[in-house]
Specification:
Length: about 375
Amino acid sequence: MYEMKKKGNKNIYILFLIMALVALFTIICYTLFLDSKQYKYTDSVIGTKIYYQKEETTTLDTVLENITESVVGVSKIKNAGTTIFLENSIESLGLGSGVIISEEGYILTNQHVAGNKYSTCYITLKNGVTDNGVVVWASADLDLAIIKINMKSLPTATLGDSNNARIGKTVYAIGNPVGFELQRTVTSGIISGTNRIIRLEEENKKTYMEGLIQTDATINQGNSGGPLINSNGEIIGITTIKIEDAEGIGFAIPINIIKPIMKKLIETGNFEEPYLGIAGYDKEVIPYLSSNINFEKGIYIAEIDRTGPLKNSNLLTGDIIEKIDGIEITSMNGLKEYIYQKQIGDTVNLTIKRNKQVFEVSTKLEKMP
């Protein structure tokens, strides 16, 4: 009797053990099934261990959707209207695009869209809210402007590295073509060229925009001031102009030149532009000016402000700036980017080449007049 009872108890223990093992196996299988929905298992054998890598869940459509949150409409007229069928709507309404680059309300766009420093414009966010904006910095030479609106906790875009722009890379342009009805339109293309130069003529005055990124992504009227982004959703340029007589030829201003300005604005709320007092061109622009000017590298000094920081120097028109503070300079955009990082009153040292002679010139940066 005792042995039968003991045997019965043993059978019950075995049954419970089997049930527990089945339950545990079921839980493990179910867990692996759920995990397979979230992870992609890739064997990466190191020694005798296997490591598993999580599958990327951020897709291109998500990237583009997120970046459009920070794209805004810019208008010089408060009641800009919404129809694309108005005659000359872009010109009459002053429509353009911009992109939020700080939660504190800083917006980057073109100077020809926003206007000069201290001018006002109107910003329309994705949710339809419109706010007054004030231009806190602008450069007609670069065709860039920064607008400030009094709003906080805004969706922002990420700035990339325009020095990494390479021909053939996929890019996307986002903006408000022809009117706010088609706001935040996304077009795609590739980088068709880098370091492009465009000659502009206005009122019998010739100017040159240097270092531009060329793309075949469609840039329509109203796109001006919108972002050109890479496949990671990073801004590498701000769209500026297109060739009207040709298809698929548009241009964007490299983003790196604006970074030191934005850094100072965000950190201090102010940007006072340091001034060197020269106008110059790199070797890519010189063929537009003269076939008799030849130099291997640096910046050709075309004009010196004799009331500015270099008024007492021995610099001459035609001298070549090869370095600044020991750093080689190959473009005016590169020189400006370096100067923007400095403070008014800082001393910079220029390495100058005149014919075969190389000498140094030091000067203190002044406030932009």
